[in-house]
Amino acid sequence: MEWIRIPLGPMQTNAYLLYSSNHQDCLIVDPGEEAGKVRQFLEKKKVKPSAILLTHAHFDHIGAVDALRDHYQIPVYVHENEKKWLADPSKNGSSFFQGITPITAREPDQVFTNEGSMKIGEWTFELLFTPGHSPGSVSFYFKEAGIVLAGDALFQGSIGRTDLRGGDHNLLLKSIHTKLLTLPEETYVLSGHGAVTTIGDEMNSNPFLNGF
């Protein structure tokens, strides 16, 4: 598996494209804005996405969802706790910030309901329920590739904010410690914002995780 991180929009939210030379489909994770930039990369690699996966439904992660869904005719997945958030600016947070035009997308085509092994297209991964930043936050763990897409749960040297709708600081810390920090230390953490880190680095140096 190969992957690329593409920061999109004014908040530089990381979208990720997962692809492989073994087959011609890919997965799009958290396309926050700038659908044209995502399409340009896909066309360059000559791969067609099979689905859009959302780690959660905050506005800065969903801005390009409908444009890409409609262009490629592919389904959108989000956790069932946030299936109504895409279409509601008061839930997805875009009405929370002054100067931001309300952002909406149509409701998801599919919802995540249970943790465990999942297969979408040619891709198999482990779905981890990691709420706290939002009530439907999930992470996608690709064991063979040694990566976990953690959304806004865990960052390099930081953790997700919990002052938006449904945020819960203690629950977020529990999610990080019981679901993410139990992964192999060499696992790369592909976060929703900022640089790539590893589980081991965050265990050793993240100041928000000490003393839990």
Automatic annotation (TrEMBL):
One of its GO terms (molecular function) is metal ion binding. Gene3D superfamilies: Ribonuclease Z/Hydroxyacylglutathione hydrolase-like. Keywords: Hydrolase, Metal-binding, Zinc. It comes from Jeotgalibacillus proteolyticus. It comes from the Bacteria. SMART domains: Lactamase_B. Residues 12-193 form the Metallo-beta-lactamase domain. Pfam families: Lactamase_B (PF00753). Its cofactor is Zn(2+). This is Metallo-beta-lactamase domain-containing protein.
